[in-house]
Model the fold of this input.
Amino acid sequence: MSSVATAAEVIDPHTSGKAAERATARPGRRVNRTGASARDLRRLLLQQAGALTWQQAVQLGLSRKAIRQRLEEGEWYECHGVLVVPADSRWGVSEEVWRADPDHRLERGAMADWRDAWCLSLRGGANSMVSGPLAMRLGGWSIDVGLDPPMQALLSTLHRHSPIRGVTVIRRCTMPRAAIVRHSRLDSDCRPVTPGLLRVASPLEGLLDTVSIAPLQCASGVLDLALQRRLVTHSQLRRACFVRGRKARRGLRQLRWLTRAVQRGGHSPAERLLATILRRAKIRGWVVDHPVHAADGAVIARLDLAFPDRMIAMEVDGYSAHSSFPTFVRDRERQNQLILDGWTVIRFTWPQLKDSPDVVVQTVRRALANVGAGRRD
Done:
């Protein structure tokens, strides 16, 4: 479909006079037989991370028959009803070329995530916004959890939208402010091309939408990881529940339930179980997520649960919190610093909390007694 043609073969019969002059000034420009230049197509693909709509392709001069032929041959493929031109295709844009572009040099996330976001946004239209795990990744929040395939993508819309395979569509009364807005503009010499619009929700909105829609167990894991990595705070969760509660929203009940659960005791199921054990044993005086400050006021540690007056720290060892060796090393360095500063540190594991709650209670009571006896002496 692509060849080097003369100016007479390039000019579209509906092209204006100035456009015709620009076309005749570049007789060696690479074009296809319908008048669309390869440079215009490649420039649009560079802006939209390799995605374009059928309408944009036709406006660039490609016939629907030519598009279908490329799809049948496997040169192109469709994602959510939007055309995708792979990097190994004739006009494809590779990750290196896309990243080297000045407009994308500072973008977070991989090109594949941006391509998926463009596909969702182009399919959803101007009144849509990309949310969910994809919005978190594009915002720099890397939370890798086992989500079901239908939950890999979330799309928020203001109006009723037709179902999209593999995408969860959330209809909203009001749309929050987008954290990322990108426009694709292309003034073709042959004819104008409809600009594209990409709107991505903030990472916090993506987290809240994921927690609201995902299965309960999966949503709990996502929220726990976000809290453990300090990506979100309890006050932000309370504020989000208040704002979303003013108007009925899908998944609000689950979001409120999980928010109350994490506020009652910790950032993980193990921490919440320890809080429940202490509460049932009527042991009082402990707090959750207690910050420990250095002499200059900087926070040197945040304790899972603690008795601040007695300087007793209770730490819960779970796999999700210590899933990497650097994290394990940092926790041990922090524990040494706490001991040197006069704290008593006791640690519990998930099997201890689940299978031996009585032993946990006895250990806490002994620590309280020892610290009290030491102070009296």
